[in-house]
């Protein structure tokens, strides 16, 4: 019969816990919360979407701003099911001051 010491058991639980915490869902157009990166290495992190549609987050550019973190505010409009709008795509807009 296999026996596992308490130390080995704790190490396994810690390892599994860290794997679960790393398995976060990637952001999508329908749920934009998360990290978005472009081909130039800039990172847009959306931290929250309020029920009003307001976005909150940060922007980091590796070029020209020496990696400074800038707050941003924006809006997220996602058409509801059954909408008669000509476009069914979500729209995201944001602004922030860089520099």
Automatic annotation (TrEMBL):
Q: Where is the signal peptide?
A: 1-25
**One annotated GO molecular function:** biotin binding
State whether keyword Cell membrane applies: no
SUPFAM superfamilies, per database record: Avidin/streptavidin (SSF50876)
Which controlled-vocabulary keywords does the entry list? Answer: Secreted, Signal
Q: Does the keyword Secreted apply?
A: yes
Where, subcellularly, is it found?
A: Secreted
**GO (cellular component) term, any one:** extracellular region
Identify this protein by name: Avidin family protein
Origin species, per record, is Xanthomonas vesicatoria ATCC 35937
């Amino acid at each position: 019969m296999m026996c596992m010491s308490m130390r080995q058991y704790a190490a396994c639980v810690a390892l599994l816990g860290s794997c679960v915490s790393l398995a976060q869902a990637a952001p999508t157009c329908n749920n934009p919360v998360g990290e978005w990166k472009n081909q130039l290495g800039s990172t847009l992190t959306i931290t929250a979407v309020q029920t009003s549609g307001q976005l909150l987050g940060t922007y980091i550019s590796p070029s020209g701003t020496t990696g400074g973190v800038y707050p941003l505010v924006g809006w997220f409009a996602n058409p509801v099911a059954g909408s008669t709008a000509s476009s069914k795509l979500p729209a995201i807009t944001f602004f922030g001051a860089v520099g």
